[in-house]
Write a structure and sequence with these properties.
Layout (H helix, E strand, L loop, with lengths): L15 H12 L5 H10 L15 E3 L6 H21 L2 H17 L2 E3 L3 H20 L7 H19 L8 H17 L3 H13 L6 H4 L14 H20 L7 H17 L33 H11 L5 H9 L16 H5 L17 E7 L5 E6 L6 E7 L7 E7 L3 E4 L7 E10 L2 E2 L6 E4 L10 E2 L6 E5 L3 E6 L3 E2 L4 E11 L2 E8 L8 E7 L8 E9 L8 E9 L6 E8 L5 E2 L2 E2 L3 E8 L2 E7 L6 E7 L5 E9 L7 E10 L1
Helix pairs in contact: 3-4, 3-5, 4-5, 4-6, 5-6, 5-7, 6-7, 7-8, 7-10, 10-11, 11-13, 12-13
Pfam families: Alginate_lyase (PF05426)
Protein name: Alginate lyase
GO molecular function: lyase activity
């Protein structure tokens, strides 16, 4: 089964063939690799007598606690591990081991408003160092290896597990790459798939097509400054390189969108003009009216990897990326701090035509996603393996199978299954094929075609507003535009079923929302007409006057036929652990109960102990509708809200 599919090791930024290629170039004093190696070897953090700065039990960012300490040690751990892998000198391995073991046994928490970003930067180097040590015969004791795995999964991963859809996209992409790295090192397929799914379909700014917003290559942060823009696309590039070492051609996703982003950014930073379209980001917070000249021309150490992949491996053209790479060759360490690996001239220089090895059967497809529509057509997409020439799509009614092939030898990473029964749960997997054989099956994904029996999903208040809801085997996801609920009108997407008389609707919120102006909640109403009588338990942000610090609250609302919305006297601010640093980052549960004309709202942090918010009186029809709603709160963008434990009884 797909869960048992093994990872390739070493399989992060450097695979076995990469290390052999670099060692051969150094031995033969091939340029520019040899000069790059000499500079790398002489770097202070590449020394086997490096004096460790840490470890510390807690580090943080904003407020800063030990960030430079951790980043310096992470740099040294990676660079010593790589020196060991390239030279075979045991002292380098011992130094890398010393650093990794010290931090793994000491660091217990990452704190601060920018904790997600900190956990996505320095730890990426630490995980790469650990991967190199473990799979290059460094005699790392198994007890220390297991301690390190527990540390990465127990301390680093919880900080990044929900990404950062509240922030600029470089936060998201940093979280993605570190999650991918931890997943490979810890052989955690589900975690790996979580990161890949976000790369291609995440709701935040860091998703590939949300960060590189069009085929011109304009980036979400191009109007912010050029330093952060290069930071963001470089993280996406690291994801693609790790995926490549696992046999996946993530570089090619969305018609080489990553290359377009690098070409656009390189061209502008080389002093040339590029087109620019002002576009609101997915948080709803950031709109830059023109491209930014801040830090223009300050090229970061990020271009060699991309140039060597697209031009040398794949034979494509990347003129501006190539010029940027040449301008700073040999590429130095990727600063500031531990922002990038850098050293790309050493790590990625390769001969032309060194692309896909066609002698092997392909890896399994990955990142399998399913979107269903109201007619029950299930649209599948996946990340294609390098060297695949076709695919077999398989379907089952249980996650463990048996899986039956429903389409053979299709081309491309997409398929629509229209032979389904609405309301039925299906699971899918895909295998790839080429002249050398079939791959293993992809990690499976499930969906309920259309919606579960008895459920419906209209747009309330606007017939043509964007919205869609779908259930998989675990949760309900609603994507919706719409401004939500104001004093005079409703504009939201509504997923509901009939409620006859008294009853309760309850659900859990699954972090996080993308639009930071989102509203969502539970509704009992008369039908689905615009401004129908309704009672609503709503979560929404109140303005604080600062876009980065909304005040999230939960409140009970009602509307009589055609009237303005009335709010109950009680408005409860949501606090830690539900809200941290003004972001809706924690799980919670809420319920709305009807007894005759009385409606009561409550919430819970554990689905056991409940806090009543308030009660409100309104006459509704005995035959009503009950469901969940979501709205982005901002025109021009959608939000995505996820719920679990959805019950109506």
């Amino acid at each position: 089964m797909a869960k048992a599919q093994p990872f390739v090791h070493p399989g992060l930024l450097q695979g076995k063939a990469d290390l052999e290629r670099i060692k051969t170039a150094i031995s033969n004093k091939e340029e520019p690799v040899y000069t790059a190696f000499v500079e790398f070897q002489e770097h202070p953090q590449s020394q086997d007598n490096y004096q460790m700065k840490g470890p510390m039990a807690m580090v943080g960012r904003n407020p800063t606690v030990g960030q430079s300490v951790y980043d310096a040690d992470a740099n040294a751990a990676y660079q010593n591990a790589l020196m060991w892998a390239l030279t075979g000198k045991a002292d380098y391995a011992l130094k890398a081991r010393e650093i990794i073991n010290a931090w793994s046994s000491t660091l217990k928490s990452i704190t601060g408003r920018d904790a997600v970003l900190m956990a996505g930067l320095g730890p990426f180097k630490m995980v790469n160092a650990a991967e190199l040590l473990l799979y290059t015969n460094a005699n790392w004791p198994i007890a220390e290896v297991e301690l390190t795995k527990r540390h990465f999964k127990g301390v680093i991963y919880p900080v990044i597990k929900d990404f950062a859809p509240f922030a600029n996209g470089n936060w998201d992409s940093a979280a993605m790459k570190t999650m991918m790295a931890i997943a490979v090192f810890c052989d955690d397929r589900a975690m790996f798939e979580r990161a890949l799914n976000y790369y291609v379909d995440g709701a935040g700014d860091g998703r590939l097509t949300n960060y590189i917003i069009n085929q011109d290559g304009e980036c979400q942060e191009s109007g912010r400054d050029q330093g952060h823009t290069q930071l963001g696309i470089a993280h996406l590039g690291d994801c693609a390189e790790m995926a490549w070492n696992q046999g996946l051609n993530l570089y090619a996703y969305a018609d080489n969108r990553l290359l377009q982003g690098f070409e656009y950014t390189a061209k502008y930073n080389l002093g040339m003009d590029v087109p620019y379209i002002a576009e609101l980001d997915k948080t709803g917070k950031y709109l830059h009216k023109e491209i930014s000249a801040e830090s223009r021309g300050k090229l970061r150490s990020v271009y060699e990897q991309i140039y060597n992949h697209y031009v040398k491996r794949m034979g494509l053209k990347a003129p501006y990326t190539g010029q940027a790479a040449a301008r700073i060759r040999p590429e130095p360490q990727g600063g500031p701090g531990a922002d990038h690996i850098g050293f790309g001239t050493l790590l990625y220089t390769r001969a032309e035509g060194s692309g896909v090895d066609v002698r092997n059967k392909p890896a399994a497809p990955a990142g399998l996603l399913i979107k269903t529509d109201p007619k029950g057509r299930n649209a599948l997409t996946w990340i294609e393996p390098a060297g695949a020439t076709g695919y077999f799509v398989k379907r089952a009614i249980k996650q463990g199978g048996p899986y039956i092939t429903i389409s053979a030898k299709i081309k491309g990473g997409h398929y629509i299954d229209s032979k389904t029964i609405g309301g039925k749960l299906y699971f899918y997997t895909v295998c790839a094929v080429n002249s050398n054989g079939k791959s293993k099956d992809a990690y499976p994904a499930g969906v309920i075609s259309a919606l579960p029996t008895g459920w419906h999903q209209p747009a309330v208040g606007a017939e043509n507003s964007f919205g869609n809801g779908q259930f998989d085997d675990k949760q309900l996801t609603i994507e919706s535009a719409g401004t939500g609920v104001d004093s005079s009108a409703d504009y939201y997407h509504f997923v509901y079923k009939a409620l006859d008389g008294n009853g309760t609707i309850s659900a859990g919120y699954v972090p996080q929302v993308s639009s930071q102006f989102s509203s969502f909640g539970l509704v009992i109403r008369n039908g689905t007409g615009k401004n129908s009588p309704e009672v609503m338990l709503m979560v929404a942000p109140l303005s604080s006057g600062q876009v980065e610090a909304p005040k999230w609250c939960i409140k009970l609302l009602s509307r009589n036929a055609g009237d303005v919305v009335q709010s109950s006297p009680t408005l409860l601010p949501l606090t830690d652990p539900i809200v941290t640093f003004s972001r809706l980052t924690g799980d919670f549960y809420f319920r709305l109960t009807r007894k005759g004309d009385e409606f009561t709202g409550a919430y819970s942090t554990d689905n056991k102990s409940w806090i009543n918010i308030d009660s409100i009186t309104l006459h509704l029809n005995k035959a009503a509708t009950a469901g969940l709603f979501a709205a982005s709160g901002v025109q021009g963008i959608a939000t995505r809200v996820k719920f679990n434990e959805v019950n109506i009884n």
